[in-house]
Amino acid sequence: MSNLQDWPEPIVRVQSLSESSLHTIPNRYIKPPHDRPSLTIFDSTVAEANIPIIDLAGLFSDDKVLHAKIQDEIFNAARHWGFFQVLNHGVRPELMDRAREAWRDFFHLPMEMKQAYANSPKTYEGYGSRLGVQKGAILDWSDYYFLHYLPLSLKDYNKWPASPTDLREVIDEYGREVVKLCGRVMKVLSTKLGMREDHLQNTFGGDDFGACLRVNFYPKCPQPDLTLGLSSHSDPGGLTMLLPDHQVSGLQVRKDGKWITVKPARHAFIVNIGDQIQVLSNANYKSVEHRVIVNSAHERVSLAFFYNPKSDIPIEPIKELVTPDKPALYPPMTFDEYRLFIRARGPQGKSQVESLKSPRCCSS
To answer: Which of 163, 124, 100, 114 is nearest to 299 (CA)?
Structure first.
């Protein structure tokens, strides 16, 4: 970890750039032409598309037929899209709203108060403005705050903002509720693989799993056609539960070679499969490339809650899913090892997890 002690260059807060009334963005944020968002090209089919929206209310009932229908919807979305939205999920709408707005309040605090929580590449915990540590990298138009929620050994309230005054309490409750929701989705994913409902969770370490929160702040951008709020990537962890800004779209998901802008439903969570579940399921479930676009008129705040395997357990395809016709696609690797691999490089589409595939599995 010695090479991850500090950032390779001085950190510039994107929010400060945005609030300085500049008319052009610095070159460090200008993406290569092939990575820029196509904001001016209108394709009616793509414009009207959206990721699946699934009503989970039936999971709380005794209706077995409805249970089976919802499970099938989740299975198909996880297999073919890697993304879906969930409604009636059990998390109180007012808690969702307060969590988002408490973090918005944090990002509008004076800079010196936020700087007290500045992060480093060693753990990423705290207030940050870049991900990878490659010197000279083209940066994203966003700031963020990253914190550990589980295991309890990593949970340190001193690294959580003390202001707004209710933020720690709100995020504690929010985390408890979202962990429950992730557990429900994990049971469905496990069952639909033909396993016991707790099998997938057990591969994560049972009750000894990890969870963390990344709050994304995307300031207004004077040239949104030249940059991205977050570069294309797939999530390295297990399962992501995203609380979007339902008033401002920004998340784009890659589907059949095209970028679909997600239209968030009010008080819905956006769920996506991470690389660890792709590995465990031997690619029966897919983690999918996604990115974030920004705009010149509105800032945007979103909360990404990551539900991850225990950091030191080797993750590899579940043995029951490995057959002569479909051998194990990935070698064992702990989540700690995989995170270090990702951090050194920063967001790079799907190339991270795909580069791990065993050559003997892919020669055909």
So the answer is: 100
- 255-274 exposure pattern, b = at least 16 Cβ within 10 A, e = fewer: beeebbebbbeebbbbbbbb
Tens of pLDDT, residue by residue over 188-241, are 999 999 999 999 999 999 999 999 999 999 999 999 999 999 999 999 999 999
Q: Would you call 261 helix, strand, or coil by DSSP? A: strand
State the Cα–Cα distance between residues 230 and 67, nearest whole angstrom: 36
Domains and CATH numbers, the chain: 2-362 (2.60.120.330)
Decide: helix, strand or coil at residue 115. Answer: helix
Per DSSP bridges, beta strands 53-55 and 300-308 are unpaired
Q: Which residues contact 129 (CB under 8 A, 6 or more apart)?
A: 11, 12, 13, 14, 139, 142, 143, 144
Neighbours of 195 (CB within 10 A): 18
pTM for the model: 0.92
Whether 332 and 316 have beta carbons less than 8 Å apart is answered as yes
